[in-house]
Amino acid sequence: MNPEIRPRRSVLYMPGANTRALEKARELPADCLILDLEDAVAPESKQMARKQVHAALKAGGYGRRETIARINGLDTPWGEDDLRTMARAGADAILLPKVESAATIKKASHILGDAGAPATLSLWIMAETPRGVLDLDAIVADQPRLEVIVMGTSDLAKEMRLPTAGNRTGLLHALGHCVLTARAHNLDIIDGVHLALDDAEVFRESCLQGRTLGFDGKSLIHPRQIPAANECFGISEAEAANAREIVEAWQQARAENRGITVLDGQLIEQLHVDAAERILAIYAATENIKNS
Length: 292
What we know:
two-stranded antiparallel ribbon; alpha/beta; 292 residues; single chain; 12 helices; 16% strand; 2 domains; 8-stranded parallel barrel
């Protein structure tokens, strides 16, 4: 898919078994809401959660927020029924957990087609196992519905036998590999969750690290994390102003039949203009969100 540019700064997981959370989500300033049928739901509550998420999506009221239903794996007793139920529920996307092969995405796409899902319903996938990360390039190639990769850093760290405390040094190679793969296939990619809720400064540092690594946004486990994620992955006024200057300088150069120009001592070429135009598109989208 080649979707319109849209902000995915904050991607909040909401437990599908919690009706109050599903209702509250309609008022939260998150860009994306993952209505979760998998990790956040106990086995005995799976079918109930499926009905609740379906009803919440049908009822709507989520406004400009992007809604994503995370189903159970297709190799579980619930996965295929989750997928069929969500196919026409009104979600913007379906999130597939623990994807380790292209066949999983193709199977999900086939089920969605048979269930009458609209062509606009996209697929997101979790990269959260060593095999899924290593094979990610082959997994995401030639997948028309696929739009976003979401890092499952908690499961990945466990599988890699990394310490449960401390920084993310052990994950950096995997994170960078996944960002490169996403960019090679023109996909968005969302950084993994930060589990500690009691240190806002450490969470902010995690967001800034994610943006430095190239992620488009951060997946979140609590509404209190939304403002920092929106700020760290958003476009500041200064960044937008600089991007406008780059575009204007380039337009002036082109009017004078010059292929390059210089702005504040920096050489400006087409690649810088492309990046600046994307920054301005994201900035405009986030401004629209603020005003909606």
